[in-house]
Amino acid sequence: MELPNGHLEIRPAMDRMRESVFGVLGDLSGLSFLDLFSGSGIIALEAASRGANPIACVERDRAKFPILLQNVAIAADQRIECKAQPVELFLLRNKAAFDVAFLDPPFPYAYRLDLLKAL
Fold first, then answer.
1. DSSP symbols for 81-119
2. CA triple 18-67-54, angle to 5 deg
3. Has residue 20 been placed in a domain?
4. What's the DSSP call for residue 29?
5. In the chain, what percentage of residues exceed pLDDT 90?
6. Angle at the Cα of 102 (from 96 to 103), degrees rounded to 5?
7. Residue 89: inside a domain, yes or no?
8. 54 vs 4, 15, 35, 70, 112, CA distance in Å?
9. Would 15 be classed as within a structural domain?
10. What pLDDT digit, counting tens, does each position of 31-77 carry?
11. Are 5 and 35 in contact (CB under 8 A)?
12. Quick check: 99 pLDDT over 70?
């Protein structure tokens, strides 16, 4: 798993939290998965390891996006599609429904409730 050096704010999901979330979700075989504010992509990769298909990652920060792409490339998983755009724009333009959506916005993100309504 690649993480950037320096000042980039990437918050890899903590192991314990990730285990808890995916413990509740269980087997994701055949379920579509949306990872908003993907960061390093660890959540999407975990979803892939549990059978999710297809998987969409959306990361608005163009400085973080290359790290996401690099980690997905390392996993060589064709089920994962990555988009570099604001999550709000993705939700507006994307008409596909997802079975599972995971959101981990940065702490200062002011539009959490609006984002939930858009889902």
1. EEE-S-HHHHHHH-----SEEEE---TT---HHHHHHH-
2. 60
3. no
4. T
5. 50
6. 105
7. yes
8. 26, 23, 11, 18, 25
9. no
10. 999 999 999 899 999 999 999 999 999 999 988 999 999 999 998 88
11. no
12. yes
Decide: pTM greater than 0.85.
no
pLDDT at 98 over 70: yes
CA distance 80 to 88: 20
CATH of the domain at 33: 3.40.50.150
CA 118 to chain centre: 17
> Taking the CA atoms of the chain, what radius of gyration do you get in angstroms?
13
Most confident of 2-11, 14-23, 94-103: 94-103
3-state SS class at 63: coil
Instruction: Provide the token pair at 79.
Output: 């089920």
Tally the C-alpha atoms within 13 A of residue 87's C-alpha that lie toward its C-beta.
27
Query: How many structural domains does the chain have?
Result: 1
CA dist 20 and 10 (Å) reads 20
Q: How far is CA 30 from the centre of its chain?
A: 17
* Residue 17 forms part of a structural domain: no
